[in-house]
Amino acid sequence: MTASSPTPTAARLTLGEAEVLAATALRAQGASEAAARATARALVVAEADGQAAHGLARVPAYAAQARSGKVKGDAVPVSTRVAPGVLRVDAGLGFAYPAIDLAIAELVPLARSQGIAAAAIHRSHHFGQVGAHAERLAEAGLVALVFGNTPKAMAFYGGKRAMLGTNPLAFAAPIADAAPLVVDLALSVAARGKIVAAQKAGKAIPSDWAVDRDGQPTTDPTAALAGTLSPIGGAKGGALALMVEILGAALTAGAFGWEASSFFDAEGAPPDMGHLFIAIDPGPVAGGAFGARMATLAAAMAEEPEVRLPGSRRLAARARARSEGLTVPPALLAEIRALIA
Fold first, then answer.
1. How many CB atoms neighbour CB 290 within 10 A?
2. Any idea of the CA torsion for 20, 23, 25, 28, to the nearest 10 degrees?
3. Crossing angle, helix 330-340 and helix 15-28, to 10 degrees?
């Protein structure tokens, strides 16, 4: 008898090590230094926040798309002020994160000067953990709303064909002497990335996540990916998904979900996605009372032990990652290192 090979163990990386690893892999496959850094930083933030579906697992697909030209790894975003409080940001069919960095940098002073400002990003790509983008605006003292559509995954409510994306949206508001309140959700019961992860792991999914081609609930991730995802809240979730499709695609002149190519492979044309950022300066809107009102709200929520501020689990995961590092599955680590080699 021969001894079996030892099972590879997961690696522990600091946040800095993970960022360097991801950026190096993306550069090796055609991304520019600036695009690789911005993208790697966003992926590691998502990983640290416990959002693995938007974290390091995206590196192989991003790299393949940069290599094939589906995403332009050297694109440089361009911002144009088209109205006193409105920016249009052209991502150049490149990675979303450099365009998002540019939009946020320009939105903060614009919202403060105008009271409210919006940035419409177009010709973009997967924009990852949407709550992290809203949080950055809230950390600058602004109230933020962020919308974006994704490639088709859900049917119009009552339909059977995948047409709309999971259509994430986020809201964030500053709280004095505390981390911002962040609401981050996709409008499907589960994100498509979680179903892909279950498929890769050979695991079943809950029966309320998706339906198969025949419209029947399924626990098989492969059947779910061939069918459609279920919206949160039934018809109300379907209506919200339609709203985000309009805000994220029609209002930015981006592709609708059924027109966009997949984020998960290197086939087809660029996804050509759109994202809408709205930033509000709460000072003039609330007559200077916003901070006190938010403090009252936070105190009221804290009075009940079972109630937590949205985003608190994310903050706990982030704190653990900073002190303990990230655990990277061995197969994923090998795949990323192979991109560098």
1. 20
2. -120
3. 50
The backbone region for 37, taken as left when phi is positive above 0, alpha when psi lies in -120 to 50, beta otherwise, is alpha
Q: Which residues contact 91 (CB under 8 A, 6 or more apart)?
A: 75, 77, 98, 99, 121, 122, 123, 124, 125
Strands (E), 149-211: 169-175, 178-185, 210-211
Coil, strand, or helix at residue 196? helix
Instruction: List the chain pLDDT tens, one digit each, 341 residues.
Output: 444 445 566 789 999 999 999 999 999 999 999 999 999 999 999 999 999 989 999 999 999 999 999 999 999 999 999 999 999 999 999 999 999 999 999 999 999 999 999 999 999 999 999 999 999 999 999 999 999 999 999 999 888 899 999 999 999 999 999 999 999 999 999 877 788 889 988 999 999 999 998 888 999 999 998 899 999 988 999 999 999 999 999 999 999 999 999 999 999 999 999 999 999 999 999 999 999 999 999 999 999 999 998 988 999 999 999 999 999 999 999 999 999 98
Any idea what the Cα angle at residue 313 is, between residues 55 and 165, rounded to 5°? 50
In a domain, 258, yes or no: yes
Half-sphere exposure of 262 (CA within 13 A, CB side): 13
Residues 32 and 113 in one domain: no
CATH number at residue 82: 3.30.1370.60
Identity of the residue numbered 4:
S
Strands 86-90 and 116-124, bridge-based pairing: parallel
Cα–Cα dist 228/138, whole Å: 34
- The tally of domains found in the chain comes to 2
